[in-house]
């Protein structure tokens, strides 16, 4: 063992290294996040950055920003897709599955249990512990935005792109506008920014061939086209359920809050679930950690026709997350090569600046507007910010403490 690697703990080899990890390592890391990541997709991105860029150093800030930008372009749950890609980068396909399962299953199990009536949360949105968790998410996202801004908007031109992107997203808060802002950032970067020497440490080190990537993209398209045809031809209830949730995961941009109206339109009018049942599950989904897409498990378990219970939940969960997994495996091998071209790097500089602007806008709405609703919640947010920034308290520990404080104080 050389002197420069002696004593280095697994996961601390330096940002962007291609040193493989283990599936177990990925599972444990994401399970902690799956149990504590409250606050929605933007907060999840902040938790991921703190856990995998700052603390474990699995990849660099620039590589993480590239990954976030790519997943913003792709349909489906952006934060879950980033998590899958991080697992893929660290431990291959097994790591992708481990990251998804560990991050998703805690909230999915809670919501399925709620569907069976095992847990009765009531009006969770008004409870103090949840408000404390939302306040903590403000601090976590603020840390992420500040850290990414220092790295990705260090000059006037990129800061201007970020500021313009934030203003546009705040004035026109629509998922399609976010995609347009990222595209505009790429065009402005191509015309206005000049990259420096290539930083090899920024690479993701994805160990998936382009042939496998192309196969994943082909399977994504085949299922999108083939599932509705097969469901209509056979009348099979399981295929219909899979088609409903696969299309939701494949065609919706903007994360969990955006998919909810589509799921309501797909499940309530056709009698798959009652309207009151849908609303009860929606309230419970706000009170659990992890991705909002796990609401699909609740709907599958609550279905009144076809597969229901545990089988319905399993079909719905696999179907709604499968498009994100296929797109991650399919896009990343090409993305890691494309980003090395000079023109692509100029565009990426603009994209990364635009992503900072989008996250800054999201820090205000919905993270701050929902997380800071009183002087008490503001105090919790400030305390979590200082605990992380000045005392290096892990994000998950600060989040749990904020929930406890919120339960007794807010």
How would you describe this protein?
The protein is mainly alpha-helical. Helix content is 74%, strand content 0%. It is built from 16 helices and no strands. Helix 2 packs across helix 4, helix 5 runs antiparallel to helix 14 (342-371) and helix 6 (156-171) packs antiparallel against helix 7. The longest helix has 38 residues, at 78-115. The N and C termini lie far apart (53 Å).
Structural class: mainly alpha
Query: How does the overall form come out from the CA principal axes?
Result: globular
Portion in strands = under 5%
Question: What is the CA-atom radius of gyration, in angstroms?
Answer: 21 Å
- Supply the number of helical segments: 16
Low confidence ranges: 1-18, 118-125
Helix content: over 70%
In N-to-C order, the SSE pattern is HHHHHHHHHHHHHHHH
Please provide the count of β strands. Answer: 0
């Amino acid at each position: 063992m050389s002197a420069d690697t002696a004593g280095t703990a697994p996961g601390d080899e330096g940002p962007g290294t291609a040193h493989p990890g283990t599936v177990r390592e990925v599972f444990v890391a994401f399970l902690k996040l799956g149990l504590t990541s409250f606050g929605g997709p933007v907060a999840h991105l902040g938790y991921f950055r703190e856990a995998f860029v700052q603390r474990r150093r699995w990849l660099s800030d620039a590589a993480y920003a590239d990954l976030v930008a790519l997943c913003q372009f792709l349909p489906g749950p952006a934060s879950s897709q980033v998590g899958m890609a991080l697992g893929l980068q660290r431990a291959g396909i097994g790591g992708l599955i481990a990251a998804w399962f560990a991050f998703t299953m805690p909230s999915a199990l809670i919501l399925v249990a709620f569907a069976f009536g095992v847990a009765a949360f009531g009006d969770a949105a008004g409870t103090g512990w949840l408000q404390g968790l939302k306040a903590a998410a403000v601090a976590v996202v603020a840390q992420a935005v500040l850290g990414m801004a220092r790295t990705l908007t260090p000059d006037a031109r990129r800061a201007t792109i970020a500021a313009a992107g934030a203003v546009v997203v705040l004035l026109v808060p629509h998922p399609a506008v976010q995609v347009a802002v990222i595209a505009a950032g790429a065009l402005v970067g191509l015309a206005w920014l000049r990259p420096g020497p290539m930083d090899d440490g920024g690479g993701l080190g994805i160990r998936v061939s382009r042939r496998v990537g192309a196969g994943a993209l082909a399977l994504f398209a085949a299922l999108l086209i083939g599932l509705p045809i097969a469901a209509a031809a056979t009348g099979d209830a399981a295929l219909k359920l899979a088609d409903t949730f696969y299309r939701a995961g494949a065609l919706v941009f903007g994360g969990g809050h955006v998919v909810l109206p589509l799921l309501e339109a797909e499940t309530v009018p056709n009698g798959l679930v009652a309207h009151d049942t849908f609303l009860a599950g929606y309230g419970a989904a706000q009170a659990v950690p992890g991705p909002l897409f796990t609401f699909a498990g609740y709907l599958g378990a609550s279905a009144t026709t076809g597969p229901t219970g545990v089988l319905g939940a399993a079909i719905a969960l696999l179907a709604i997350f499968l498009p994100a997994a296929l797109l991650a495996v399919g896009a990343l091998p090409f993305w890691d090569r494309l980003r090395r071209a000079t023109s692509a790097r100029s565009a990426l500089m603009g994209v990364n600046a635009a992503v900072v602007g989008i996250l800054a806008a999201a820090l205000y709405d919905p993270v701050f507007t929902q997380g800071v609703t009183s002087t008490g919640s503001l105090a919790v947010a400030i305390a979590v910010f200082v605990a992380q920034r000045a005392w290096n308290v892990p994000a998950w520990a600060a989040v749990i403490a904020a929930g406890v404080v919120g339960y007794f104080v807010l």
